What does this fold into?
Amino acid sequence: TESRHASRARFFVAELSQALFDFVIQLLPTAEEMAVKEDVRKLLERLIRTIEPDSRLLSFGSTANGFSLRNSDMDLCCLIDSEERLSSSDMVTMLGDLLERETKFHVKPLAHARIPIVKLSLDPSPGLPLGIACDIGFENRLALENTRLLMCYAMIDPTRVRTLVLFLKVWSKRRKINSPYSGTLSSYGYVLLVIYFLVHVKNPPVLPNLQQMPPMRPISQDDTHVGGYNTWFFDDIELLRQRWQSSNTESVAELCVFNLIDFFRYYSRDFSYNTGVASIRAGLLKKESKGWQNDLSSSKYNDARERNRFCIEDPFETDFNVSRCVTKEGLYLIRGEFMRASRVLAMRPRALTALAQLCEE
Ligand code: CTP
Ligand code: MG
It folds into this structure.
């Protein structure tokens, strides 16, 4: 009967949302891991200051945006506050030498990469059973700002947003579709897909659009532009928590489960991969309007088209396609995984079976 059907649906939602929370909680980094990472950051900052006394070493990426999983790598960015500073590639070379001499890290300086970085790693030890991996870059102020934007989105609704994002990060890693180097999508790309979905697809929206809210006070160009890009967004989260009441009335449990189901359905069926651009700043855009179309008539050696197979606009660097590394095969894999996940959930299995099946390696 109808009511039996309804109560089974309720049971499915309650059970799956509980299982999702439990699943995600055991994947969070421990307080100890966070403390060790902070110690490493401080140590590295002290060493860098022997080369550039006016430098600061800041954390970005998952260690700073609230979407960190156990044992995720550390992204660090060095800012130098003086006028005359060494070039990034000179910094990489000097810092590489210094760290090699002074520390136990394995050091790999990439001075001539498109974005010069020093790669570091530490072998596992009793206090750090999984070791540590860390990249140090220079002057990447946009990455610091987009980290702050993601962190603010995470803080508006910590339970629901983080549960969904963390689950998808694990899922995409286990299903092997989280690797820009082999043609699939970075974690950063998946987080943007989730925010895009919660701001622009869910109706009523679960999150506000922080880049389009009216500012509380007049803002000056200087404060809000980094490298020519507008990086302003509404960042008074305390105020926002008081003011923003999503008119979405689904319960926390319902939201977690429906968000997950709807997310997979939207990206397996409804998102227009051929013509659309997902923009958390402006909603669904057309590839044409950004000059990002898949021009299928162009020569097969023109890799512009390969770069724009899948389009996700960076929130600040709006001429940058975050998913430009996704290849034809990569997109096929990603969409196949969205469909597979949709199918698994549509069968309404018991919660633990569902999670195990979804994340099967
Ligand atoms: N980033 C960026 N542009 C990209 C990719 C990454 O600006 N195309 C910056 C973002 O600031 C992002 C950070 O690099 O937060 C780290 O990216 P990534 O490693 O993909 O995300 P994490 O959240 O650190 O995920 P993981 O835990 O998998 O490392
Ligand atoms: Mg990272």
